[in-house]
Design brief:
Number of helices: 6
Number of domains: 2
Number of strands: 2
Structural class: mainly alpha
Helix content: 55-70%
Bound molecules: iron/sulfur cluster
Distance between the termini: 62 Å
Low-confidence stretches: 128-132, 136-149
Order of helices and strands: HHHEHEHH
Length: 149
């Protein structure tokens, strides 16, 4: 088994580590090793992303969930939660509004319910055809309107 310091070096050079090695780092209590790991992670992040800050629009497309995690406001046993599920049109409308606000990528988030997967899968499939035309048309229109300003 490698020592924590060697695992950090391995991560920096090979960009991989075994499960046991990652566990070794997570369990490490040595403040110097932790600081070294933090600096290595920061250096890697800056090498990959630079100093830019990337923002993503978050679309919570449903708050139905079959699970019951105690800390979560949308857990299935929370009777006071008002449930909703966005339609495909709603989601695309959110993307449009987000685009207007400057977002260019979106994260879809929702509770865990199997049937929502189908809606989402249909949406993604649709995005490759009709919706992409709609969005492309919208983006084109948006770009044109920005050029007029
Ligand atoms: S949304 Fe996530 S955290 Fe909340 S109850 Fe469902 S699985 Fe748990």
């Amino acid at each position: 088994m490698l020592h924590a310091k060697e695992i950090i070096t391995k991560l920096q050079t090979e960009h991989k580590a075994s499960g046991a090695e990652l566990l070794e780092l997570l369990r490490c209590e040595d403040v110097y090793i932790k600081e070294e790991l933090r600096k290595a992670a920061q250096a890697q992040a800056q090498e990959t992303f630079g100093k830019a800050v990337y923002l993503r629009g978050l679309i919570e497309f449903s708050n139905f969930c079959k699970n019951d995690c105690l800390y979560c406001g949308i857990r299935k046993s929370n009777r006071s939660c008002s449930r909703y599920r966005l339609t495909e049109e709603d989601i695309l409308s959110c993307c449009k509004e987000g685009y207007n606000s400057g977002f260019r990528t979106f994260v879809m988030q929702g509770g865990e319910v199997g049937r929502d997967i189908h809606v989402f899968r249909d949406l993604v499939a649709d995005t490759s055809e009709e919706a992409i035309d709609r969005e492309a048309a919208y983006i084109l229109e948006f770009e044109k309107s920005m050029m007029r300003k």
